[in-house]
């Protein structure tokens, strides 16, 4: 009977310890199997199943196992360790709130990874943690990413931090705009830093932050230095930076409803000069952004107010000249600053104090008025017609250039696709050749073994 009593009331701690130990060994074994291409898919599926069925008591153990892998592990191992954070966030939600700082630190350790797919997994995990674990403040995720963005000098870490921050801000329901507003000047200063290399990704993060702030607690002094710095990248040699700068300007136009109209003239002018970008994707982004800025309240087409003595014909002629000059600048593809013309000086009327001269100025015959009006309108119409013809010619030339560029881009894309297909075909052939060589070497080894065994038997028979 004593043995029965021992079995009926066992201690609970040894089985629990055994379970934890077994779980750790199982997770580590699966992580090791991720390195082998033959067992990769099965190991990944098993790890996903483990993550889905974890209890709150085993969260810390599982995350520690993910952190134990270092940069010496193969790329599939590093990538899946980050992807498992997404699985945890989607399946367990706010139960992981106490472990969120450790999960973020796991992501930060992978931002320096040279493999872009690992950094992409970090961005996905940032989104899943933001949307899945809402019990912790957003600053738990954003603050470490901002610190890494500002202080880390590694180019891969800069890219990863900027992409993760932008993705998390875009996904957050409550992105803590006050904290983001305070960090915006620090982030914006990186645009002028020569040590910061990931400028396109940084511009994307700045645009996301501006969109999240959405005009709350905005200060004009911030936009006074931010807009010129962002606008400089509209003429960058990197087309990704040009596109990201245009997208950031679009965010400013939509988010800063009160302050953006103050900068409408300058932004419309510079976007007008860049809307014929040689890259189609950038060109489309520029035009969408230009349309948003033009829709803002206020009139940016009048560069300067005419004097009271200016006539309507002089307005139309000067407007036509300005349009021609802007179009010429667009054809050259330059990003030079558009100079605003000076206000026309009103004509000075010399006063001689004589009433007779006043009468001469005021009293005119109806025939003279009609004659002057007819001649003025005819000259204005001819100038407008000439300007219209010039603009039509310029538009046709621009249209031809766009078609040629589009054709070249399409040709380049087809070339890249064919090259990629060729590389994939070559890779498949190499793999097939490796398999064939492996089979041949196995057959040779078997044949050699059989031959050796046959020789041994023959020698034995001869000796007997």
Describe this structure in words.
The protein is an all-alpha fold. Among the domains are: 22-175, Leucine-rich Repeat Variant, CATH 1.25.10; 201-297. The protein has 18 helices and no strands. Helix 2 runs antiparallel to helix 3 (40-52), helix 8 (139-151) packs antiparallel against helix 9 and helix 9 packs parallel to helix 11 (199-213). The radius of gyration is 36 Å and the shape is flat. The protein starts with a helix and ends with a helix.
SSE run: HHHHHHHHHHHHHHHHHH
The shape is flat
Biggest β-sheet description: none
Give the CATH level 1 class of one domain.
Mainly Alpha
* Mean pLDDT over the residues: 77
N-to-C CA distance: 68 Å
CATH topology of one domain: Leucine-rich Repeat Variant
Structural class: mainly alpha
The CATH architecture term of one domain is Alpha Horseshoe
Give the number of DSSP strands. Answer: 0
Short description:
By secondary structure, the protein is an all-alpha fold. It has helices at 2-8, 13-33, 40-52, 59-67, 75-92, 100-110, 116-132, 139-151, 155-171, 177-189, 199-213, 220-232, 239-255, 264-274, 280-294, 312-332, 355-362, 366-463.
């Amino acid at each position: 009977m004593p043995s029965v009593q021992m079995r009926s009331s066992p201690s609970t701690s040894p089985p629990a310890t055994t379970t934890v130990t077994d779980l750790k060994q199982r997770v580590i074994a699966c992580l090791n199997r991720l390195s082998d291409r033959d067992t990769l898919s099965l190991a990944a599926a098993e790890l996903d199943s483990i993550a889905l069925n974890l209890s709150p008591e085993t969260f810390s153990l599982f995350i520690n196992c993910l952190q134990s892998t270092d940069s010496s592990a193969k790329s599939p191992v590093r990538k899946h360790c980050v992807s498992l954070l997404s699985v945890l966030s989607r399946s367990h939600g706010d139960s992981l709130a106490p472990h969120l700082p450790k999960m973020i630190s796991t992501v930060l350790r992978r931002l320096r990874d040279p493999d872009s797919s690992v950094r992409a997994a970090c961005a996905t995990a940032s989104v899943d943690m933001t949307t899945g674990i809402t019990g912790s403040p957003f600053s738990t995720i954003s603050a470490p990413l901002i610190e890494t963005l500002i202080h880390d000098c590694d180019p891969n870490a800069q890219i990863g931090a900027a992409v993760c921050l932008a993705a998390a801000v875009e996904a957050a329901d409550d992105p803590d705009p006050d904290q983001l507003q305070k960090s915006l000047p620090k982030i914006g200063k990186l645009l002028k830093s020569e040590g910061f290399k990931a400028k396109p990704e940084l511009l994307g993060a700045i645009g996301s932050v501006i969109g999240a702030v959405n005009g709350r607690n905005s200060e004009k002094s911030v936009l006074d230095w931010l807009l010129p710095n962002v606008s400089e990248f509209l003429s960058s040699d990197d087309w990704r930076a040009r596109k990201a700068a245009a997208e950031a300007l679009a965010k400013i136009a939509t988010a800063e409803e009160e302050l953006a109209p103050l900068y409408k003239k300058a932004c419309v002018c510079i976007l007008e000069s860049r809307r014929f970008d040689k890259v189609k994707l950038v060109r489309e982004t520029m035009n969408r952004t230009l349309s948003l800025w033009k829709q803002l309240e206020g009139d940016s087409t009048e560069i300067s107010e005419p004097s009271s003595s200016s006539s309507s014909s002089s307005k139309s002629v000067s407007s036509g000249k300005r349009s021609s000059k802007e179009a010429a600048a667009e054809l050259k593809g330059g990003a030079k600053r558009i100079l605003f013309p000076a206000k026309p000086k009103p004509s000075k009327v010399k006063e001689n104090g004589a009433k007779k001269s006043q009468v001469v100025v005021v009293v005119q015959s109806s025939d003279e008025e009609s004659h002057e009006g007819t001649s003025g309108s005819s000259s204005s119409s001819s100038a407008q017609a000439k300007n219209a013809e010039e603009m039509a010619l310029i538009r046709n030339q621009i249209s031809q250039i766009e078609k040629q560029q589009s054709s070249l881009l399409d040709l380049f894309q087809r070339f890249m696709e064919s090259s990629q297909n060729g590389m994939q075909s070559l890779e498949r052939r190499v793999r097939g050749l490796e398999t064939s060589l492996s089979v041949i070497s196995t057959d040779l080894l078997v044949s050699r073994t059989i031959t050796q065994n046959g020789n041994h038997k023959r020698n034995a028979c001869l000796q007997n």
